[in-house]
């Protein structure tokens, strides 16, 4: 059942069924408990990870500081393509924020698939493009001067392609990802809740009106 979720959303959903079947045949679904570390920055390359169920906190450390929480990945997100293309170490740390199911496609399986059909190399490359788009979205979000709109845009980014309009994220983590203080996050979520856009809970935030929240994030009145 978990693999079927990967067929419906994210990178794999846009690939041919025959390729999806090959990924399923070579991949292994693994269950990770809340708080488990899937990979860490600096680990050797070891293939792809696709989130089928749950949520993953993404940490980065591109400079001399960190790791810093940057994003909450929802089902349909894939990571690990960098090591396949460069042979270099992992650039992200992934931690399960809730019990999660992740599909692991080993590096040697990726190499066999690429050797069997050169078009598969292009397919794996699409993951990198998707993740670059995600980085650009994060940059665009952080350039929003108004902290309330920035928080709304961050919530929408973390929802990504998820079918479930619920984010398993604390207000502290949301503040870090949106570059806003916890006080501002708390006040903003309260205002958004009064407007019926979100419903904050313990370590989770439900988005009740995506269209209205999207309009708010860009400074437009809901239509």
TrEMBL record:
SUPFAM superfamilies hit by this protein: cAMP-binding domain-like (SSF51206), Winged helix' DNA-binding domain (SSF46785)
Superkingdom of the organism of origin: Bacteria
Keyword hit for Transcription: yes
GO molecular function: DNA binding; DNA-binding transcription factor activity
Protein keywords: DNA-binding, Transcription, Transcription regulation
Domain Cyclic nucleotide-binding intervals: 35-123
Pfam families in the cross-refs: cNMP_binding (PF00027), HTH_Crp_2 (PF13545)
Gene Ontology terms: cellular component: cytosol
Family matches, as PANTHER family: CRP FAMILY TRANSCRIPTIONAL REGULATORY PROTEIN, NUCLEOSIDE-RESPONSIVE TRANSCRIPTIONAL ACTIVATOR OF NUCLEOSIDE UTILIZATION DEOR
Designated name of the protein: Putative transcriptional regulator
Source species of the chain: Salipiger bermudensis (strain DSM 26914 / JCM 13377 / KCTC 12554 / HTCC2601)
């Amino acid at each position: 059942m978990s693999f079927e979720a990967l067929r419906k959303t994210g990178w794999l959903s846009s690939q041919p069924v025959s390729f999806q079947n090959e990924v399923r045949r070579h991949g292994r679904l693994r269950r990770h408990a809340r708080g488990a570390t899937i990979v860490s920055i600096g680990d050797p390359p070891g293939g792809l990870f696709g989130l089928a169920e749950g949520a993953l906190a993404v940490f980065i450390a591109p400079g001399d500081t960190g790791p810093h929480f940057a994003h909450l990945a929802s089902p349909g997100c894939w990571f690990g393509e960098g090591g396949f293309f460069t042979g270099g170490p992992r650039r992200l740390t992934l931690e399960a924020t809730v019990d999660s199911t992740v599909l692991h496609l080993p590096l040697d399986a990726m190499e066999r698939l690429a050797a069997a059909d050169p078009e598969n190399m292009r397919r794996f490359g699409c993951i990198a493009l998707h993740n670059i788009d995600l980085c650009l979205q994060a940059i665009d979000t952080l350039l929003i001067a108004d902290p309330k709109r920035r928080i709304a845009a961050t919530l929408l980014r973390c929802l990504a392609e998820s079918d479930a309009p619920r984010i398993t994220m604390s207000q502290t983590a949301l503040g870090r990802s949106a570059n806003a203080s916890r006080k501002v996050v708390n006040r903003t979520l309260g205002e958004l809740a009064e407007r019926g856009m979100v419903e904050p809970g313990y370590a989770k935030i439900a988005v009740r009106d995506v269209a209205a929240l999207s309009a708010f994030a860009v400074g437009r009145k809901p239509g």
